[in-house]
Design goal:
The chain is mainly α and 169 residues long. 87% of the residues lie in helices and 0% in strands. The longest helix is centred in the middle third of the chain and has 72 residues.
């Protein structure tokens, strides 16, 4: 009990100041030991770990920067390829539409020539050609294109079809 009483009788400021001085001394000794071991080239384990952690942090930062640059480059390349694919798909679509229009136009005009020459045609051929013309008009409308010579051919086909319906096939 006397020891506790004696402890409480001590000057608290002196005790705190003493603890602070002891801690400062320990820190100074550890720092001097670390620096000295680095200077002589034989660092102690905790200095090596600190240096290793620092180097690892620097390497990780560099790797992260490199990955970010690669990712940006990959995004640019991906966008470029997407645009190329989009353009190629657009060209293919246009080519397909042109071919489809030309094929329909040729079939309708060929049938109109056959009809105007008086060659025999059955009712199903007329229906097929009329149906083909409806598809042709829809395709032109969907692609904002205009009809030209096929309209005249269809007038010939429709007139002949009406006559055949009246007079028989």
């Amino acid at each position: 009990m006397d020891a506790i009483t004696e402890l409480f009788n001590q000057d608290i400021t002196s005790v705190i100041l003493g603890i602070f001085i002891i801690m400062s001394g320990i820190i100074a000794i550890v720092s001097i030991t670390g620096r000295f071991s680095e200077i002589i080239g034989k660092p102690v384990k905790w200095v090596r770990n600190k240096n290793y952690d620092h180097e690892l942090l620097i390497q990780t930062t560099q790797n992260l920067d490199m990955l970010q640059k690669k990712q940006k480059n990959d995004v640019i390349q991906s966008d470029k390829h997407d645009n190329e694919i989009r353009n190629d798909l657009k060209k293919l679509t246009e080519m397909f539409i042109d071919k489809e229009i030309n094929d329909m136009r040729w079939e309708i005009n060929n049938f109109a020539t056959k009809v105007s020459e008086g060659r025999p045609c059955n009712k199903d051929s007329f229906k097929h050609c009329i149906h083909m013309y409806e598809k042709y008009e829809k395709l032109l409308e969907d692609n904002h294109l205009e009809n030209g010579e096929v309209r005249i051919s269809m007038e010939i086909i429709n007139e002949t079809y009406k006559e055949k319906l009246k007079n028989g096939f």
